[in-house]
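Case study 2.
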Amino acid sequence: MSNASSQGLSGQFQDTVDRAAETFKAAAATKDAISQEAGEVLTAAATETAKLAESMRAHAAQAAKEAAQYARHEFEAHPRASLAAALTAVVAVIGVMAFSWRSKRASN
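Prediction:
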């Protein structure tokens, strides 16, 4: 996964969690309509959700970085095997496409 795409996914995830946290905060702001205790619970939930999201984002970004470094290391250490694996994957995709095409033609 490229650094740009992992940052994009990380950003999307953070945006989603931020919206959830804002929803919790908005619900907590309506304390007058609900009990004091429920408002406190919602506030705590919003805080914990934001903390959890930040922690998950940091761990995901680090894991993606480590996976990319490992893949690069393996490719550099074994270029022929990497090329063979890539070609095998291409042949497999072509085979699946051909099988699908033949199945569709046979049913018509």
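The chain has a mean pLDDT of 80.
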